[in-house]
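Retro notes - structure team

What went well: the batch runner handled both jobs without manual restarts.
What didn't: labels got mixed up in the shared folder, which is why I'm recording both outputs here explicitly, each with its sequence directly above its tokens.

Job 1
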Amino acid sequence: MKKLIPLFLLAVMLTAGCMPGGPTIISNQPPVINSFDASPLSISSGGTSTLSWNVAGATAVSIDQGIGNVALTGSRAVMPSATTVYTLTATNAAGMSATATAQVIVSGAPSPPTPAVLPVVNSFTASPPGITAGSSATLSWNVSNATSVIIDPGVGTFASSGNTIVLPAATTTYILTAANAAGSTTAMTQVIVSGAPSPLGGLPVIDYFTADPPVISAGGSTTLSWSVSNATSVTIDPGVGPVGLVGTALVSPVTSTNYTLTASNAADWRSITIPVLVSGSVGPHVAYDFVEMAPTAYWWTKVGASMVALPFPGALGDNRGFATYRYNVKLSDGNTYARVLETHPQWVDNGWISGKYSGVYVPPGAKLRIKVGLINGANAGNVGFYIGKFGAVATISLDCAYADGVKEMEADLGAYAGQTIDFVLGANANGSSAQDWAAWAEAKIVY
């Protein structure tokens, strides 16, 4: 079973520090790069590949494309949006160095552009073009001769061909901008969102819930604003209580406070939590809980050539993979947890499952904290956990086999401070998916 350790930006030093002993210095000889490989060599847009390497006789090893310093031996998962060449550089105490490269091919990655010719948008469509509130549409595109492809509002940066899921709360016009050295070309497509589903036939939909401003001084106030569809009751805690489907409320918390809006109807309930930060208040505080908010995420995987949406909670016997809560369950460290989020990858070799969490506010000074492991009895399990900004390199990612017990990790989110972004959380099967009972005991943004 091969190892697949997804990339995270700030845990590199942690990994390096776990290597036994110190580096071996070979005098008057350059370092030796025994291996530097990518597996698989080719991925679909949104997929992952693992870089693996083994170096001898070096005092420093680094990999470009934002990875940075690494240990002499290791592996990292990467999620490039376009075909990318990674270069490993090994240096010894004498200043002698050696390099090696590994390429990850992304299906649909752009061909080398002709600088004098503008990009060509061959197609940009939404399917279906009309949805009901709370459902999703798929944007698909094909672009030639571009070095970058960006879809607004707020969808992200992508390869020259591909597709992505969007969940607009209202009718939205999406704008694709393809650029190269010669300039840019744009194209538009629209997703029409009709009224909310009937109360007896659908789930509540939280169109938005915001605090303006999200950070206040002691003694100050902020305005909570919200819009909810298809709900029979809406409440905001703490201290606000029952409210209408659409409205605002002025709040003046004394300390940093998380406000939770809960929308209910006869079918189910949905909730969303946002932080209001009070300058000078003592932390740490929880700004966002990915385990708690798992029912609001969009879960999906790839079955054959098709992206497939998955329900939450998923069925334990769904061979496409599933995300669901497990209660009073023992993990591989022998401890029992009241509730964990299980994210079982698709039941194929190197299968995966991902959840997209939309509109997550990252406070200044925030960190991402996770605690993961395998459910008791999953002796054959070996899973790669990852979490980070949707469409970017994972902020935290790590491998966890059953014998590893439960692992904890924390990483800085300073790059996204003050922003509202989409996060993706998921799990990869490292080779076989047998007994990959991947469990998130904790996944939070704290500040």
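Job 2
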Amino acid sequence: MKKILIIDDEEKLRNLLARIISYEGFDVYQAGDCKTASRRLAENDIDVVLCDVRLPDGNGIDFSKELKVKYPIVEIILLTAYGNIPDSVSAIKNGAFDYITKGDDNSKIIPLLYRAIEKVELAKRVKHLENQLGNKYSFDNIIGKSDLICDAVELAKKVAESEASVLLTGETGTGKEVFAQAIHHASNRRNRNFIAVNCSSFSHDLLESAFFGHIAGAFTGAVRDRKGLFSEANNGTIFLDEIGELALDLQVKLLRVIETGEFMRVGESKPTRIDVRIIAASNRDLHKEIESGNFREDLYYRISVFQIRLPSLRERIGDIEPLADHFLQLFSLKTGKKIDKISADCLDTLKQHHWKGNIRELRNVIERCVILATGKEITTDLLPIEIQNNIESNTNDKPLSTFDLASLEKQHIQRILNYTKGNKTKAAELLGIALTTLYRKLSENNLK
């Protein structure tokens, strides 16, 4: 139920307004002065305030300005017995929703209240979405407890509060854009744009226009002016993924942007000034690229004021299970399936995989498994065949001293069960053992 606060030192008028407004189903609170009103606002989640301009301990117009600073979502309707244009202008400038004259505009109060409530509800929805967005990109949503990922998160949290350029390094799929988003949303620029661009996804000619924009007639097909991504990111953050793919002439122009805060649109001679924080990322060894003449050393030092290396999934095997569980919940929800868990053997298989595509590859694998699953559990046979084959290959390539006999036996039994699609009678025949022996070994090894 929406809550309305009436502030007026005329008790009879307050009671009359309260009775009229309560008939509309609103909760109504009353105050005779600014001090009491402040207490009511602190104690209750007020949506709209009806406030007299002349109060015993203050001016309603000034008080409304104070309230909008402290309670920006609350809407304020000012009431006065002496309406005049200067006061109404001041009221609106101070954030009041509207300004009406007592007696003359009584019929307007209820419709005005409903319009104010609509604005409050919209503001609350926007705030809720902003909070969701902030939570989505917060550091708390980076999954993993391994020392390497925790160290990376702590470094990112520290640099987020600064204006320093950041270089994120690591293999493809390690979560560089996730970190860039988290850094931006933890920074003072969080309420400004975050623009992400993959430097390898544009041709050389298109990338310059995409970066800096162009004016009409700058080249064939440029029929109108276009803002570039750097302009879109003004006062915010631009994330340059795969920066090692930039051509040398664009590296020079990017260096100038970093050094001067200026650039020129394609076809334009007048520079544009911007204030942009740069977060760059690369899966290449930029030191080697510098040695081979493919990357400018001066640009490298500009973009790597603060460098964070993101570990590969192979280096944080302990995080595979929570990541896989997270993706399981995500895709189960999307597909409407009720899948409870990933089998222990399937998790073992996931932990032994090389994961060249890192977290992105794991996400894709779990999504595939969820699509194929018909039961309440993700099992090894749902994994892509190359992962199952790779596990066999990796096992065969390792010296026997790295495995105890029980582990080798467990893996071999599971492979045979996968081959027979769970047919235990057939599996016992292939293994050359009695069915009762197979059941005993399944129980010992916690297999199904």
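One thing worth noting from job 2: The chain has 19 helices and 18 strands.
We'll revisit the folder naming next retro.
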